Input
Amino acid sequence: MLSLIVFWPALVAVALSVVPARAGTRVFAGAWFATGLVQLGLVAVVWAGLPATGYGSVERLAWIPSAGVSYHLGVDGLSLPLLALTAVLFTATAVYTLRGIARPKGFVLLFLALQAVSAGLFVALDLILFFLFFDLSIVFMYFVIAGWGTGAPARRAALTFFLYTFLGSLALLLGFILLALAGPRFTFDIPALAAQNPLADGGAYAGLTLLVIGIGLAVKTPLFPFHTWLPPAHTEAPAAGSAILAGILLKMGTYGFVRIAMPLLPASWRQFALMAVVLGVVSVLWGALVALAQTDLKRMIAYTSVNHMGYVLLGLGAAGLVAGSGEQARTLATAGATYQMVSHGLITAALFLLAGSLHERGHTYDMTAYGGLATRIPRFAGLFAVAAFASLGLPGFSGFIAEFQIFAGALGAVPVATVIAVTGVLITAALLLLAMGRMLPGEVRVPDAPGTPRPFPDLGARELLAIAPLLMLATVLGLLPRALLDVIEPAARSVNDLVAR
Amino acid sequence: MPSTVPGAVLLALLIGLPTVAGAALLVARPARGATAAGVTTAAATLAVAVAAAVTRPASEVALLAGVRAGFAVDGLSAVLVVLVAAVLLAALVVAAAEPDLRTGRFHGLMLIFAGAMLATVTATTLPVLLMAWEVMGAMSWALIGYRLDDRAGTRAGTVAFLTTRAADLGLYIAAGAVLAGGAGTMALADLPGLDGGWLHLAVAGVVLAALGKSAQLPFSFWLSGAMHGPSPTSALLHSATMVAAGGYLLLRTAPALDVAGWAAPLVAWVGVTTALVLGLVAAVQDDLKQLLAASTCSQIGFIVLAAGAAATQAGALQTVAHAAVKSLLFLVAGLWLATLGSHSLTGGLRGAARRHRVLGAAFSVGAFALAGLPPFGLWVGKDAVLAATPAISPVLYVTGLVAGWTAAFYAGRALWLVWRPAAGPVTGSRPSRLPRPAVATTVVLAVAAAAAGLLALGPAPLRPQPAPQTWELAVSAVLAGIGVLVARRYAERVPAPGLLMRWLDLEELAQRGLARPVLVLAGALARVDDHGLARVPAGAARATARLATLVTAHGERGVDRAVAGIADGARALGRAARRPQTGQLHQYYAQASVGFALLAALAVLVLVVR
Output
């Protein structure tokens, strides 16, 4: 079943590759949309069959037995929400793309490939398989940014993105090999390594392993100071690319922490948990403050991602400080961090799609060029306000449930760091309110081409259909968190137990 | 607490009805019928609130790991749910008088605003309290900036939201402290029993959040800007939501304030200081809405004082009495603005009360009540609060009396000015065109404001303990009377020091001391990012390229030379190896004999050694 979920978009991509390119956007994006719906349905089936503990829908085949590599897939409460997020976001971007894009065939084929590797990464239970999907995601995203960005800076940004994250992935590979070599039996199998716990005693070797794996994941997440590839990549990427990059690809980094770093290197995670907390808090403040200084809408949203991912690390680090906090607090921290991954995916994707729609109309991301949008394009203004409030962690939206759990869970273990991190909530509020204050009220002002006023229509049906469901989901998750927490919490508890042993 | 089904339904209706209807109105934005839908929902909510106040439902559902979302209506909540629903209904009925407020957006925001307050006052656990609390803040942002062409309104909304959210951070921290202190359920009732230092951290967080929300010193300035919102919004925001929420939270957590030791006196002193200082600010304002706003801070100060003195019932009484008065005054001010186009007491509002007698009478009742004159509600409410203060410090009591006197002065001043004959010829539209429902609402509110004092004899949650002594009531009544009379003399000649006019420059201070430094820091960090950190990978790439050139230039040549050297060496060896092969027999014999000699020597050597 999981194999079908993972390879279904790839199969569709193969089938579409024989369709002539002149068939047009409607055919390609329509097929992509249908693929997404089918994938969503399949994920729902897997969701219904998730066992209370352990992995569900497991598939395992020998692949390279001599090297301890197997084709091993499975889902639990940590990966299933992200798998569902993948299906939701790709479907939404498919709807968004239905409006039209240059060279639709290549675009859709690339995104289908990205969809396959993203789904694959979240269900992979073998380190080499994980690494393979991790790397392929970088390759495909490189082509999306370089091919559909805006000219020469796009290729440059794409290259920076590629080199930076590829280097990170090499560190990751090194760490995986160190992990595999540590055990009595050479294996890359994640559950087997978690059970063996070969580096239970910590020490320099384990610390080094955590360091290289941590760097690899931190680049992708991205955490301060490895975040500088993010703003240019986002600025140059097409809207759909930004939405997937922020919504899914960043999660590959944070997911790696809960899936690999924490359970496979528990002793070192406990030892260096404070480092994770510090990195998280610095990312929270750095991301928020630098975002506050931006006038470019997309750069601003990109930096808020650094801020939001910082909370995840704060929560995961606090969960590693076993001595300083109770079991309930650590469950809250880990569950909150996982919740944040899903929440940020939905909200930031919506913000990036909105930014894309604005750019399409005004041909600039410069916020100072716009004014009075609430009067001129009220539907856009309404959705943007909702997305901004969701992003600043307003209760009623999923971000609050995530951040509240992280803060509440972390305060007992790291009070000073948490109090500092809480101020990030205020700074994000300031920057998003300032952005809205610039663009939404006042006299109508839109960037016109010289002499001829541009048509500046409100959001169309397809844009609404792509963006509104994301925000609706964020609202549902903000008001009825049990729907997702019932799945996440058992898995969060078992990760914490693995860390604490 | 076991959750009973009817109670759960009632609570779900109480909170769900206004919020869901409000969200629907916001999304649908119907071209017509928004007012009808809003008013109907508000009326239904009031009915549900009364039912909830009578039946006292309680209910809980799972929310987070080990933490439940709990809602319950107890004595204090019962008072507040009815109050919130009633003021909401009044505000929406009066809003129908203003054409630009007959929109789905306005009614939707107001309904969610009130729904969030209803959730705040019924929440029994911290997470849901915080959720409702912050949603209220967001709605106030949207309502203060309701007029989209008014950038100043948006700015004021942003200041209000950021100021209150800065204080709200206290509740985030309090939640963590409650958990760390041993109250895993995060129930508000468990607050006093926390362990050690966590108790103090949690209480500090709660106090911070409450002071910010209720616009007490030093946060008062946000309420001044909040005046940009439509008057019905002000009526709701100043009486039954936002500012009232801060007072409510302190009343709710008064036992914990007491246990913490330092918190109760601190809260009491902040309350009484705000009551006095903002009373002075109100006394010098020319703009009626600014006067009323400063007076809100001042009057809420008495509620905060009540929480510090653990006089919960007196605080609730003051809340109700103030809400009736303040919603009345704001709604009248809004109707005057709509018909006369002015807020200025010495300008356009001079003689306003003479032009529409019913409205003028309603305003007068409100002003008398605000002045603290007997037998109106605030007279009893304020004295009930003050009656509890001598136990802490007599200075508190005296300061409270002086603050009460300033209220008499500013209320009296507004009263005299609106009754003075207008200076010039009357302009503007005819006031008699005011819609009847709006005027009727002000009359109802005037009756409520007048009669609120009777509640002190009524239900237990409002019966103050200790009750004010007769002489205390008499002294405050005489003081209020003097205040109103003095105001008549100085109504137009009140000295207006700039500092008081500008609300003590608190906003300027916050701007300079906090907002600007943060913005400067943000700019600096952004430059570090763009010119420093972002260059690192590019620099690394350049360094790699340079290394490659170096390797090509030097390394490659070296390797080249080494390879060539080896080849030369091999060739030389080859040449050397060819030398013995001369082709001449005698030379081969000579070579062989040398070889044999060497072998023989070796054999001898081996034999000897053995």
Summary: Residues 86 and 119 of chain A are 6 Å apart (CA to CA).
